[in-house]
Structure prediction request, 416 residues.
Amino acid sequence: MVEKHTALTVAQEQLKIASEKLKLDRSMHALLAHPKRSLIVSVAITKDNGEKAVYTGCRVQHWDARGPFKGGIRYHPNVTLDEVTALSMWMTWKCAVVNIPYGGAKGGICCNPKEMSKGELERMTRRYTSLLYEFIGPYRDVPAPDVYTDSQTMAWIMDTYSQITGYSVPGCVTGKPISIGGSEGREQATSLGVVVCAREAAKLLGMKLKGSTVAVQGYGNVGMNAAKIAYDMGCKIIAASDSMGGIYNPNGLNPYEVQEHKTKTGSVAKFKGSKSVTNEELLELKCDILIPAALENQITNTNADGIKAKIISEGANGPTTPEADRILHEKDIVLLPDILANSGGVATSYFEWVQNLTREHWTVEDVNRKLEDKMVRAFNDVHKISVKEKSDMRTAALMLGVGRVAEAIKTLGLWP
Ligand code: NAD
Prediction:
């Protein structure tokens, strides 16, 4: 039977599994299952043609027991409150897994950014920021980029927040351009973490990273940079895809040339010397490492059995359903879960925030060294739990993340 999952049912199921394994009492499970605050806003703008338009936006702040809320902002036609709630929960666990002092949040606007001009996107971003103003800030909730938002979006948020406050507040947002307080290495950080995790897993399996074949679903910030980093470490990138289609070449693709092609044509599709594959076919290609780096619910009980990769390193949030997790575990495929594998982005966001609050600027070498250190430590923490519990890496990561958050809530107690 085909599973009927949304991102939120997946997140709730994962929380249930972790709560049972951790033997959390029912009331703690209930606390963790509900976000602290969900805001819905109507983002009104004047379009380029003079007409008015209203977009529905939201910001979900899940838990902040370990520090200020932290999480990306997504612009996509399928954004819903449920999806953003799931993403906010994953942020809470992820910050705890990689052990940074943040809680979890996520935001989104239901819109089609591909059909909007730069001016419209700027006005929408600024209006959205003004509507959230009282609830965000460097000590409250610190947004970052996600699907179809980027460093320019973050610059508009910082400027709007700073103009309303009356002085420059670089720490109100991360993933900014370097010229206004962004961190060296932030753009590639999520992808570096994804590849470092795959490298650590390969070591455990006795596999060499050099020469390993890699397929990447989604060729945006995370997927493209992961392909380039893996290529630079000696992997062979055999397939890549985006929302317009996929490409395959068993002899290897040069990800830098694929990027140039995408910049020129808007898609990886029809890259010279490659065969075309669908996104579904890409997931089932014979390869050593599969990197899903697009959207949720891509690996389900309908295709998990066909997956041939030895390692899956989740760049995307929520690409795999719980039933697919079970199938992959039975097939001895090592799945490195999102809350571990893609936590390099938020870890480097944390470094950016620390630099902003202390008015420092670190070198890229410093940032990447600190990032590798955090990723390897988190990988080992999760792996130790998976060995002790004889569980897959997802269950182990959830136990670590959920356990740390539950401990913080218990220690703080509930006010009043
Ligand atoms: P992005 O907007 O830069 O890229 C998304 C890519 O996915 C694009 O190439 C798009 O064409 C492609 N895509 C969209 N729908 C697709 C489909 N149905 N099939 C195949 N490809 C499709 O976004 P991003 O920042 O790279 O985020 C990608 C994923 O990584 C998301 O799940 C996001 O939540 C997660 N993530 C991002 C970061 C970050 O630092 N940007 C950090 C952690 C997790």
Notes: The first strand starts at residue 37 and ends at 46. The two ends are 47 Å apart (CA to CA). The mean pLDDT is 97. The chain has 14 helices and twelve strands.
